[in-house]
Amino acid sequence: MVWQTLKRWYHMLGSPRYFYTFSSRVLPWLTPIAVLTLAAGLVWGLAFAPSDYQQGNSYRIIFIHVPASSGALMGYMALGVSGLVAVVWRMKMAEVMLKAIAPFGAGLAAISLVTGALWGKPTWGTYWQWDARMTSMLILLFMYVGVIALQAVIRDPRQAARAAGLLAMVGVINVVIVKYSVEWVQTLHQGSTLKMFGESTIDPAMKYPLLLSMLGLWLLYAVNVLLRARTEVMWRERRSKWVNKLVKEGDR
Amino acid sequence: MNAFRAALGRELLVLWRSPAEIINPLFFFVMVISLFPLAISPKPELLATVAPGVLWVAALLAVMLSLDGLFRRDQESGVLDMLLTAPVMPVVPVLAKLLAHWLLTGLPLVLISPLLGHMLQLPDAALGTVMLSLLLGTPALTIVGAIGAALTVGLNRGGILLAVLVLPLYIPVLIFGAGAVSAAAGGANVDGILAILGALLALTISLGPLAVSAGLKISSGN
Amino acid sequence: MSDSSIRLELVQLGCERDDRMLFSGLSLTARAGEIWQITGANGAGKTTLLRILVGLHGFFEGERRWWQPQWQQDLLYLGHQPGVREELNPLENLRYACALNHQVGDPMAALAAVGLRGFEDVPAAHLSAGQKRRVALARLWLERKAVWVLDEPYTAIDQDGVAQLDAQMQQAAEAGSLVIYTSHHRVGDGVQRLHLENGRAEVLS
């Protein structure tokens, strides 16, 4: 039953035209929810959450840093999954996604690095430390750059997407290995503050605004991906009847 | 199996007849390494500290640069199209190519590395580990780099793009390779690290050639 | 497998490249014993069409059906480039092609047949463009494959060579092969012709 539903979803979302109408319906309410959630999380975290007994107010950057890092990582994983679907099953929408997911993810990786550096100065006394997580994030940024650069130089959009998809698949395996290998080198970073299972080491008064801004940023990422994918779908299907009809209706 | 043997013989022959492809990476390796004592300082203690990293980074770059032309000439001459339309799985000739390429460009780096390690003032006890780590690491570098080479084969500005695509993928091998040499220089047991390098090699050998053939198919227009 | 089952069906085939429709709505059935000539101006999409047929280009609309799943076993494809490495001599090049394609036959005799007797061990770098093309064409004189797909086989070939190639292609068709090639040169009478122009594909006989 679940399988059937999933399969139907897969086929529906695999159709560019269906995707377009679907996203038209989703975006009007997803966009405000995303913006409001993120704003609420950030305001709560930056202005109202208690200050840390060790780090004072400087810790507040985690309300940006942690959501950005998690978003960047999730984005790359999504690239890998899209790559698998695009390369193995040749699904057109997965190709579109490969183009739509990368830029925002790369931006988040960059934000994560900058905020991490800014946080590092008061905490460690230096902007940059080659610790496991910052190094991993730097490499993740490099891999985003690779995916984007490869798509930029291949002229045929479908071929470009499939090439990037293969690279992203290899990249996802690499992300996992890199994570363990840089941890093996050394770790200076503090332990993980949020745990999915078991007890968190973070005060609930800080945890909830953090979760809220994380959720908000993920939703915003989703909005961005949908918008980019819509543009790409329109461009790719510009010769089809439904796009032409849509454009004419828009003119009126 | 016959196709593999024929392909391997052919690849070895092609490389053997263009000696620059074999010698250049080797010279690059030696030259880059000889730059470091000049640039940093010839002080033995200092050199010995940076030697594992220098050796490994130089080997990594030498392998990567040698890969840029791995498929290009076959693509330009039309051999690649023949390979992709043949009734054998593309993995077979691809494996032959990778093996031949490593034997004639990777293996020489491994063989000369103890000499360079000695010149960089590494303790003699670490020289075996230098060789062994490169022996396990360079094939992995060749295979992973070939994925990038396959994806960029049809593009006329391969070189720097290849580096952008491939260098992040080289990092795990670099870390454990250089780590093994450092540990050996410090007198530690390196069996565990070499085992990890071996595991990475096994992973790349099992999945890499498939990814390379997939990359070639994508580059051809699939 | 009987030769008469050999068949290629194209159903509403279309291909777009660099923002331009090369051809669309191309439907045809090609059978054993037929010779198909594909014509069209430069850039009309002849090479792309052949690459779609042999599975090198996968971005197209419509369907391309070969008569059996392992059609590649019986395919002899000569691409736009002759597929000859300059580091190797004609014999080595030919042997490699045969090993990859599971094609048997006497390479020396085939090279002699295309007029390369005495050039067997000259590095291909020293051969002329026509001679390199002949190295590739030598495969037509080995064990006969059921499907020939030849991209501009006449390029750089001299007059005698053209006549010889005509005869070889006709002979292959009579023996039950399906021959598809691109060129402005017509092999002989009874050749089916497919013309590509301005995004249209027309079958002329």
TrEMBL record, chain A:
Domain Cytochrome c assembly protein: 20-189
Transmembrane regions: 26-49, 61-89, 101-120, 132-154, 166-188, 208-229
Alphabetically ordered keywords of this record: Cell inner membrane, Cell membrane, Cytochrome c-type biogenesis, Membrane, Transmembrane, Transmembrane helix, Transport
Topology of this chain in the membrane: Multi-pass membrane protein
Chief subcellular location: membrane
Keyword Transport part of the UniProt annotation: yes
Location of the protein in the cell: Cell inner membrane; Membrane
PANTHER family, per database record: CYTOCHROME B_B6 PROTEIN-RELATED (PTHR30071:SF1), HEME EXPORTER PROTEIN C (PTHR30071)
Family that this chain belongs to: Belongs to the CcmC/CycZ/HelC family.
Summary of the function given for this chain in its UniProt record: Required for the export of heme to the periplasm for the biogenesis of c-type cytochromes.
UniProt-recorded name of the protein: Heme exporter protein C
Gene: ccmC
Automatic annotation (TrEMBL), chain B:
Cited Pfam families: CcmB
The species this protein was found in: Alcanivorax jadensis T9
UniProt KW keywords: Cell inner membrane, Cell membrane, Cytochrome c-type biogenesis, Membrane, Transmembrane, Transmembrane helix, Transport
Membrane topology, as annotated: Multi-pass membrane protein
Domain of life: Bacteria
Main location: membrane
InterPro entries: Cyt_c_biogenesis_CcmB, Cyt_c_CcmB_bac
Protein name, entry field: Heme exporter protein B
Compartment(s): Cell inner membrane
Keyword Cell membrane: yes
Family to which the UniProt record says this protein belongs: Belongs to the CcmB/CycW/HelB family.
Automatic annotation (TrEMBL), chain C:
Protein name: Heme exporter protein A
Domain spans labelled ABC transporter: 6-204
Pfam families, sorted: ABC_tran
Keywords recorded for this protein, A-Z: ATP-binding, Cytochrome c-type biogenesis, Membrane, Nucleotide-binding, Translocase, Transport
Any coiled-coil regions, as ranges: none
Domain of life the protein comes from: Bacteria
Organism: Alcanivorax jadensis T9
Keyword Translocase included in the entry's annotation: yes
UniProt xrefs under NCBIfam families: ccmA, PRK13538.1
PANTHER family for this protein: ABC TRANSPORTER I FAMILY MEMBER 1
